[in-house]
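pls design
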């Protein structure tokens, strides 16, 4: 999990800025999703804390706010609910992604943004993130599907059997 947390940080450095309505393209969520699909919900929660904290310490972008750690934990946890000990399908990945957008982006992150910057700014950030996520949805689902399946196969080769 430590190496995957470090990989999360490295992948976050590779975020690709795109434009005004779509702020950036990122794959930094993938290590957390792989950990969640292989090791389950408890590991996903711990990974969410570690990855967010390591990322903040390595590259602080704004004031530290613990609500975003909770958001990262819940994001990983939601992926574990839909992918751990289950057959990974495009549908299961899509439902997990939609759940993350609804619960974390539209729910939790909106609340955190409102507390930090006020309702007007939070609405702007949420709208921008929503557009970003909707445009990138098919890419994220495809990448998550492929990487999680590859991660499971690799883990099974190294450690023996893994959940389906």
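designed seq:
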């Amino acid at each position: 999990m430590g190496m995957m947390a470090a990989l999360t940080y490295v992948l976050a450095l590779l975020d690709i800025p795109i434009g005004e309505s779509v702020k950036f393209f990122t794959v930094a969520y993938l290590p957390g999703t792989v950990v969640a699909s292989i090791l389950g919900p408890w590991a996903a929660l711990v990974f969410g804390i570690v990855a967010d904290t390591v990322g903040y310490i390595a590259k602080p972008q704004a004031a530290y706010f613990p609500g975003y750690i909770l958001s990262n934990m819940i994001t990983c946890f939601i992926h574990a609910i839909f992918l751990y000990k289950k057959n990974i399908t495009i549908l299961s990945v899509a439902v997990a992604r939609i759940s993350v957008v609804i619960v974390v982006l539209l729910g939790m992150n909106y609340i955190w943004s409102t507390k930090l910057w006020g309702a007007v700014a939070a609405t702007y950030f949420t709208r921008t993130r929503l557009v970003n996520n909707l445009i990138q949805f098919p890419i994220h689902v495809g990448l998550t599907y492929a990487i999680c399946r590859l991660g499971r196969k690799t883990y099974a080769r190294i450690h023996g059997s893994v959940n389906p």
